Amino acid sequence: MNVGNPTRRHRRRRGLAGIIASLIIFGILFTAFFSFFYFQSSSNLTLAKANASAILAQQRGSHENLELGVFNVTNAASPTYGDIWLNITNVGGGPSTIVAVSVTSAQGQLISQGSGSAYLVGTPYLNFSLPLAVPVGVSTTGMKDDIAISSGINQGPKAFDYLDNYRHQTVYVNVLTAAGNEFSIQFPHPLTTTTTTSLPGGSTVTTSWSTSSSSTSLTISSVTTSTSVGCNGQTATTCNTASGFLVGTNSLVVQMCAWYSGTSCQSAPTGNFEGGAVTLGVTVTAGLAVTPSLMIMNISTGTVTVPTGSCPSSPTSTTTTGSSYTYLFRCSFDVKQGDIGGTLTFIGYAVGTVGSVQITSAESTSNTISVGNLATELTGPLSLDYTSFRFYSTTNQIGNPTPVIPASSNKFVAFSATVTNTGNATITVYQYSYLQFARVAQEMDFYIIGAAPTYSSGTGTFTGFSACSGLPTSTTTTAGCGITLSIGVPTTLYFAACLPTNAGLSSGSGWLWGNNYGGNQNTSCGNFQYPVGSEGVNGLIVINFAEQLGGPNHPWVSFSQTLPGFGIYFS
Amino acid sequence: MAHLKRRHAVSELVGTLLMISITLVAGAAVIGWVNGQAGSSEQAYGANVAANVNYLREHFVIVNVQFPSGACSGTSPTRYCTQMQITLYNNGALVDSLSSVTVADSQGTLDVNLTRSASSPHPPGAFCATGPGCTITPLLKTATMTTGATTGNSPLTFTVNLASSTCSASVCFSTGSFYTVQVLGIYGYLAQVQLTASG
Questions:
Q1: Which domains does chain A have, with CATH numbers?
Q2: List of residues 6+ apart from A544 with CB closer than 8 A
Q3: Chain B closest CA to A507's CA: distance in Å?
Q4: Closest approach of chain B CAs to the CA of A176, in angstroms?
Q5: Would you call A131 and B93 a contact, using CB atoms and an 8 Å cutoff?
Q6: Residue A520 in 3-state DSSP?
Q7: Most buried of A100, A138, A287, A337, CB within 10 angstroms?
Q8: What phi and psi, each to the nearest 5 degrees, are found at residue B149?
Q9: Residues A190-215: tens digit of each pLDDT
Q10: What is the pLDDT of residues A296-324, one digit of tens each?
């Protein structure tokens, strides 16, 4: 009985110590180790959060992108340079917050003058208070206008006096965001031509018949002619590569030339073929019993559209010079606008009898007639250098360049733009050139009609259309009031716009815009609203230069470029 | 047998008490030691984490460096400036302060070395070694850059003034010369910009 008791007691003692030791170990675990591990875990979590936040901030910053537009306007209350209107569009991948705006010179000097800082954050230097959140606006194009903010920077007492000092210099308007990015835009905006269209220069017709086919009864060989071959009775200096048909031993040489309009054997004048005529000449040297027939068989390539069969089936006229007969076929066709760069090809045949040989189908294909792009091709861009568009005037005068709100009594308002031809050819701008303005993602919504550049600045008579000769309704007179844009020479153009309540420029001029170009601009002279979009509206400007007068046939050359933030501030 | 049993019983009791006491004492010692070690580890780890977190949250950008025209004299190529303005914007997640501002030239020569600890004027740097030295306003140790873009913190401009009365290329900023500006935050973030002086 007693043998087992000590053993139980011994076990009980060791168990008690074990319990105590276990408590101690648990105490250590729950006090030191647990708290340490908990602290470590929470610290790691904090570090991970900070790391994630840093990465997120970095990503947000890298995705941030703002599109700035800036322009100056004159303030009605203080008609001096001073106000800058800033247009900010968030085209980045996330929302942005604008925290400061500044202006620096081209040399990097901070020239904006805020209260104690060159970084402007609120009134009176801005007409809005920063920070300013700008939502995302890039996912859909349609939202672009919606998310654009049009916030003006007011001319405070001293806020933007720098513009008086820097108005002829380049400055930079900078926008600082909360992400630490700074976006800048140059002012005046360095405008670049985004679209350049080649001028439809001299459309030269130097066509000759160069290939031929034969019937079984004909032996046809190429005959190289010389300048002795006549075109419409004249030396064919421009028809110098004609070939013809050699029919048996009795030569029947048919030489064919083509030239533009009525001026024989000469290059076509500069202009568009639209509505023009091509004369095809057939010269027969001998043995002709049956007058040749000429038919346009094919018109090909390019965008040129010429109705088939517009040439007569019989000669328009015949000229006899010795044994040589020249038959003329005057073919008229209508090359539509926009055919610049197209080509024409004619296929014709002659019918005749030489001896016992009946010529039934001697076809030949003409050379390609190029329409446009053969002369005076403008390949370079056209730039608008300083688009300080301002509007002037009240009634037919360029008065004090004080901005005016177009009123019902005004005939028109005028705008100016300095244009520099940076191309490689001189451009002549005629009176009916015009400007178009469009808001972003919208159709062209206004026309500003070019006016006479008979004044340069200051007060002067705005001649308008009625005082210019050669109204566009005429197809024969030369355009009046044209100005020449020499290469590299900045030229200030003035443009006029009518108000919706007035007939404006079209009044009494006899020229109906709408009749010539469609639409209803002849009575509205523009759009049914103020000439240009409201302030801060991004705009697309298109300058359409009429290169040569031709009534409805004159070619239009368009140069377009986007003016961010373009608009007029009506205060 | 009874005597033996009584002695044995006393020995067991004392032994048990001794064992418990020793266990308690040793356990307490172990607990104290472990707690101490854990505490010091926590402190060290916490400091390390805090430094990392602060470093991650510290961020600022140099938005502008300019040489005010009014502090420049002469004509190029001998036009020198005695002032540099550095504008910073705190886009980090904490209220920040600067540790140092240094300017080095294209050869790597340290021209200006303005630190937080030194009081004005600050002699280090080639441009500051002679004369009354250089100053920076506001002082790095007192200037703080607020944070919180939504509440409107603004950029802060520091002005480095060279006190040299007689300027030359060796003691003043030379327009047209290339400089590297480094701004070090108190938590280790470094912003740098390289520019050509103009003023």
A1: 66-187 (2.60.40), 207-370 (no CATH), 379-563 (2.70.50)
A2: A433, A434, A435, A436, A556, A557, A558, A559
A3: 55
A4: 8
A5: no
A6: coil
A7: A100
A8: -65, -30
A9: 433 333 333 333 222 222 222 222 22
A10: 544 443 333 444 445 666 777 777 766 66
